[in-house]
């Protein structure tokens, strides 16, 4: 309807756009001219639709009734089916129960039949065994009337099995009667029980076992592995095959061929009479142990193919290798030396034995690991290897300590021999003073380094032989203690020898001290001898400083070695590290004591020469010129110049040799002694003003020199000396002003004032008494 009417409406819309006149015409006509016809059509359609709805509703009601009837029938059918299925399940349950009951009955019947069959079989076997047992129990030692089974080579396995069963039964029967089997064998009669059977069975088993072993040997020589395996399987019934295993291992060529053992010795030790060295032994052991490993590997392949229990055979084989072949070689290689009569150092001494022991132990440990890789069953091959060296390891610490002592003694003898040669040939053409110092052998840092190298080698052996931390720490501590003893003794003796030079120089000085009333010729000779003694003292001073320097370097080497190599081995064990530190301090205390005494002697030597130079070079006119009106000399006195030059020269070695607190203490002590000696020396002279200026110049020179000591207390003393020297320069009436800023020097200044040449003429004694009384 829309398609029929819509074009007309669209045409009307188009026409309405043509103008207002036409629009007015449209408005005056009806909007839907066909509405009446459509309304009638709609009413007829609605009536028809209502009729159709009533028809469809009626059909739906009829269908609903039919569905309800059919659903009722279906439910009834399902109920009947469910009841039938329940009955079916009940039938199946009864059937299953019946089947289960029948099955159980059948199983019981089967068990009874199997048991009956087993009993029948057992009874049959028992009858057969009793028949065989009666044959063995017929008469003692008679094995000729036995069944063919026991002599048929093709049925050896069966015969062996039966013989073992009979033997077990007979021995059990005898055991119930309280008779030991050992008393039966060889002493059996036919009078009672199964004693005869036991004896005959024992003889037969022995004969059968020997026969099988012979067949096994023959097959082994022909390399018939199948026959060997068959024999080994049968022999496993006799003592679990132990005899076959041991027999196979014992017949290996490396255990019975003497030439093999001799070849081992030649390979490791070389030809008889040749020099044995650890490196050659190491190469020989490596070659030999490689050969042994290859041999065992080849035997392992045969054993795996032949024996039912190859691991047990490998265990026996490896044990035999270590206990026989390796032990025989080690017995020749490692001859434990006596600690009472040590081997000569020319023949290698104890060190050669220890090196051989370390090489043999290390290489044998490698062999044990290789054999473990090849296979050795349940054998503790590492433990067995350790047991080979137990006798050597038990006394190892004592041998190591004795070796280090032997090396030290040999080195000392060598050094003494060198010192004697040096002394005999080196003093020709030298001055007497120089020979005093050179005749004493100096400490050598190279020698101490050699001691440390010996100790390092010994520590490496300790590490090799000691598996437990406690044992390792104990051995390392003992070895390190040997080093401490060696170094302490060596450097202490070296310092003492250097001190001997100082002592001899002091004796030379004392020998040429003369009185005042001597002739000029004697005095000149004494002066010449004093110069020689001074040269000896200076040379001895330098030698001792070199000894102190080398002593410090040696101690530093030992301390560094302890920190780098020893500490880490001692730290895992309580107290061990602290104990070694204490021992190190104790061991070095003797050297410290010798060094302290020597440094005191050095100071005495220096001061003796200073006093000699002052006494020889200082003139009375140096500080009291005859004409006080001339221009004063601002140069230091000759005595001062000589003393400073001597100190600069001799102390150069001290500045190089000493370090830290040792250097500071030594120079401070020397500075104090120099101050005291100069003050004592100057109190022998009188001073006029120009002499006071000269003295002040000397004090300045000394003060500038001692500043190199870096000793504040000494510098202060020389500064005060410079102030006190002013008491010779100022006029008497100005003396009181000198002490206003430094009252602490009044007492010493009072002694200096008494040295003024006008002390009496100016009546300074009374002035000073009043001055110090008023100041007090």
TrEMBL record:
Pfam families: Sec10_HB, Sec10_N. GO terms for cellular component: exocyst. Keywords: Coiled coil, Exocytosis, Transport. One of its GO terms (biological process) is Golgi to plasma membrane transport. Residues 36-152 form the Exocyst complex component Sec10 N-terminal domain. InterPro entries: Sec10-like (IPR009976), Sec10_HB (IPR048627), Sec10_N (IPR048625). Residues 158-767 form the Exocyst complex component Sec10-like alpha-helical bundle domain. PANTHER family: EXOCYST COMPLEX COMPONENT 5, SEC10. Belongs to the SEC10 family. This is Exocyst complex component Sec10. It comes from Linum tenue.
